[in-house]
Each structure stands twice: as C-alpha cells, then as structure tokens.
C-alpha cells in the first residue's frame, strides 16, 4: 500500500494538493497539509506536480501508474466516458 508523507518543515499551506487531488486525500489544518484519506490514493502524482515546495513524498508507489491528472481534464473526460 502506498504511504504518503508531507514534510511540514517545507509545506507552506498553499492548499494546491488538497484542491487538485481527485481523491480528496489532503486537508489543510493549522496552515499545513495533512493526509486524511491515504487509502483512496490512486497514485496519479498530481499532488507532486502542483506542490511548489516539493513537500510530498509517496513511498511504495509503482512508477508505471504515474499519470498526471488535472481536475479540468477529468471533468472534460467525464463528458465522453
Ligand atoms: S497521487 Fe493523486 S490521488 Fe494520490 S494523493 Fe496525490 S493527487 Fe491525490
Ligand atoms: S501543495 Fe505542497 S506546499 Fe502546498 S499545501 Fe500541499 S504539501 Fe503544502
């Protein structure tokens, strides 16, 4: 199972990970990102793409599943599938 770590020493609490994660894995609490829904992570790594601080680490992830998921792209695709 994937394990998600957020480095609170570099997280600036911008909220981009919480906003962009399609599975609502993150929440912002006390100005920092916390993992609240790890089991639903689909390993798309969108949060890595958007984090300006490189604060997020995924452990035990399969690189073959790496896929950037953008919420706008997802909503566009839903019109067709
Ligand atoms: S890898 Fe994707 S599903 Fe998992 S926490 Fe990051 S944005 Fe959310
Ligand atoms: S995107 Fe990065 S810096 Fe911003 S809240 Fe999430 S972990 Fe913190």
UniProtKB/TrEMBL annotation:
Keyword Iron: yes
Residue span(s) of domain 4Fe-4S ferredoxin-type: 2-31, 32-61
InterPro entries membership: 4Fe4S_Fe-S-bd, 4Fe4S_Fe_S_CS, Fe-S_Ferredoxin
Alphabetical UniProt keywords: 4Fe-4S, Electron transport, Iron, Iron-sulfur, Metal-binding, Repeat, Transport
Any one GO molecular function term: metal ion binding
Annotated Gene3D superfamilies: 3.30.70.20
Name of this protein: 2(4Fe-4S) ferredoxin
Upper lineage: Archaea, Methanobacteriati, Methanobacteriota, Stenosarchaea group, Methanomicrobia
């Amino acid at each position: 199972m994937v394990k998600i770590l957020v480095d609170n020493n570099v997280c600036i609490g911008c909220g981009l990970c919480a906003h962009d994660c399609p599975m609502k894995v993150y929440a912002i609490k006390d100005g920092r990102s916390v993992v609240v829904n790890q089991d639903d992570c689909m390993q798309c790594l969108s949060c890595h793409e958007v984090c300006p601080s490189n604060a997020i680490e995924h452990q035990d992830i399969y690189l073959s599943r790496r896929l950037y998921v953008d919420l706008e792209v997802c909503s566009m695709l839903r019109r067709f599938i």
